[in-house]
């Protein structure tokens, strides 16, 4: 009887270790951008000009960094906001209460410059501030 | 004076007739490098840019590596940092042509063409040729293709420790819905 108890306890412990390892591998390591300080604060116009003039330098400066960006909303889907026509922000959580022509500030991660469309792309965006 | 007006008029007609472009910003690329009985290695990117010139069949696409989404964040991190080095090579591009493309022949029935051009991944450019299927419905051109990519062709090194868990040929699928702009 004692033996059986021990075996059950051992199996439970092994199972727990296995599950937590699996959980760690599948879910850990996700970045929480909202907890990070913005590396740069820019306007949508300025960052587009920067990328347009020198892609390589701008990539070095901005890639993977969290930035705060401000501009006017020019296009909108529930998951994506375009500001000043040239910065595409993919939102972390879908938003419904944003309107075209609104002045908006977002924080997100710079993922690169699309030189086909001449647009800067940012993802994991959260809204910091918006005009009423 | 008349001549210049005529030339201008012709130029205007020229640009409207010959530069009909179809574009998307939300194209989809999915790749899978899974080996049966090992962890699923699969990622999707649904923010691919693509431009098709209806007059010439010129086809250009661009994808930012960092916007590929995996199920597991750790896998995504390894993909970006160890394999694709996305800080050095943030994008992959394709520039080429749909051979013998004729916009007038597009219909709701699928037509298949050959797509040929330069694929640049990880800073290395290779010529590729693949079949591309086009379906036109309600002004939208659905474009799909399916081809294999070999990581070693693009200088992407896979450590011997995980070599058996990652497919040698990576099954890549594209799905773009192009619209006239």
TrEMBL record, chain A:
Annotated Pfam families: tRNA_anti-like (PF12869)
Superkingdom field: Bacteria
Alphabetical list of InterPro entries matching this protein: Protein_unknown_function_OB
Keywords for this protein: Membrane, Transmembrane, Transmembrane helix
Residues that span the membrane, as ranges: 7-25
Protein name: tRNA_anti-like
Source organism per UniProt: Flavobacterium muglaense
Lineage, broadest ranks: Bacteria, Pseudomonadati, Bacteroidota, Flavobacteriia, Flavobacteriales
UniProtKB/TrEMBL annotation, chain B:
Gene3D superfamilies referenced in this protein's UniProt entry, alphabetically: Lipid/polyisoprenoid-binding, YceI-like (2.40.128.110)
Domain called Lipid/polyisoprenoid-binding YceI-like: residue spans: 20-181
Domain of life: Bacteria
InterPro entries attached to this UniProt entry: Lipid/polyisoprenoid-bd_YceI, TTHA0802/YceI-like_sf
Protein name stated in the entry: YceI family protein
Coiled-coil region: none
Transmembrane segments: none
